[in-house]
Specification:
By secondary structure, this protein is of the alpha/beta class. The protein has helices spanning 22-27, 33-47, 68-74, 76-84, 126-131, 135-146, 152-159, 162-173, 179-197, 209-220, 222-226, 231-247, 252-268, 273-302, 306-309, 342-354, 357-367, 376-397, 399-402, 409-417, 421-449, 453-479, 508-521, 523-529, and strands at 10-11, 62-64, 89-97, 100-110, 314-316, 333-335, 370-371, 487-490, 495-502. Helix 8 crosses helix 9, helix 16 packs across helix 18 (376-397) and helix 18 (376-397) runs parallel beside helix 22. InterPro entries: Isoprenoid_synthase_dom_sf.
Amino acid sequence: MHRSYKSTIKTITTISPYVNSAKERNQCRHKSVLADLLSTAHEQCVKNPIDQTESPSKHLQSVLANDIITTVEQNEGIKDLLTNSPMQIQKIGEAKFNKNVYSLISTSIVYPDSWCPPPSFTRSPYHILSNKQSEHEIKDWYISAFGKFLSPPTKQRLWQLEPAEWSAFLVPYAANNYVDLMGKFLSIFALIDDQLVEVEASEQKRITLEHLFMFAETWKLAFQRQSGQQMNSKSLARKIHDLALKTNISLLEPCFQVWSSIADNYVRFGADETWCNRMCNAIKEWIELGIREVIGKKCIKQSSSLTELRTQIPVILTSYDHPSLRQGTKEKIMTVDMSGMSLLEVLLRQRIATIGIPMMSLLLEQSCGLNLSSIDLLLRPAINIAAIMPSLVNELVGMGRDLRGEPNFSLIYRQMFNCSLQQSIYFTLTLHDLAMKTFDQNVEKILQSLKSPSLQHYVSIYMQYLRLLVRGFAQWHHYSDRFKNLIAVDETHKQILIFSIADSQKQRYDALQDALIQYQSHKVIRESLY
């Protein structure tokens, strides 16, 4: 049951009584931490490259692609290999098709015990969907709000799956309260991101960045609405209505109305005006960098070389930009000098903003019954580091699609350094693990800088739930129908890579089996292999 009383929200009123010194505060602000992580991951991969010819296992079998699942189940050596080897990328066999032999590579993201869900959570989360009492209520809510505005394929993909899916993954991972509300938020976030930010606003024809900023402003005005001040909100709603009529974009108005109602619910459950302003800023960041990400990827696809690209990606400058552009002015189109690894840094900064974690971290405060607004600057660097992990998971599980011509973080690294797909994925996995370790280190520094034992306790709980939220995002990417394509084919090096996400080293084999089952049931993948 939702806790709907404002008195349950524990508000942290100020930073200064809890932080030991300015020096310690500064230690928690990590300047160019992304650049440091990228450089460190790259150096590790250069020093310890993946061996692409040999395998630790001496008993590999050559099989037809249709028999991969059976072979994995019957070969006990594969289970031992994945359980005992520290390597996240393992050759586990060979597959034959199209008269060629392809190495079968298991690629695992493994989370340590502290990042894993409660023991009661089983390997496959779909039992939650089938038993969840509110699943049909969520679907009914979604179809009543958007049913007549969605095309049949979009309705099938979003209505039947994502609202209930999101709630299911949040239940065991990272939500004390408001689980269904968080699930609704994420499903609307995905719809706005897919249909309005990526499709409409990136073209800058029918709607613009400023138009979509109204979706952020309605969160800023939510506290005023709760206090009875309706004038500004009504004006904003009229603007959305007029824009929908002018542009003939039918989703604009229902998305705005539902988005506003979710904001109102959070205020009713205890969110204050400062929190609403923080959410407004996070949504603006997502929208602007989401548009820029789409524009940048189009430039990458159209560019003949990354060297040429590094000085030609246009950006609309905000406070969230690359450090070299902090003095930029808003509403001016400029170019970014992205020499060397900074191209990857820019792409990663965009993914951090657009993956959803910055916004979800704010919802998580409410779910935990906390208000951390006054120490947001202290926590934000660690939260941004946490967002790196689902960003990289998103890139990895999208590899099969992106190999057909779409820009991808790992593929850009591959192009920059002229390495194999396996080596570029090794870099991505190394970066993922470095981000995880850095997050844990940052949390320890933050806790040490807080003088109040009570505040240390609440921040520690919050950060643990943030770990589980990140892990829940990874699980959703692994199991969701949106990302069933967990197979990538590297034609150049004759490799098939299978992506899986495991709840510890011991679960790598089970995660591999789950990925192969999805491979077996995914028609598009099978057709791409033959």
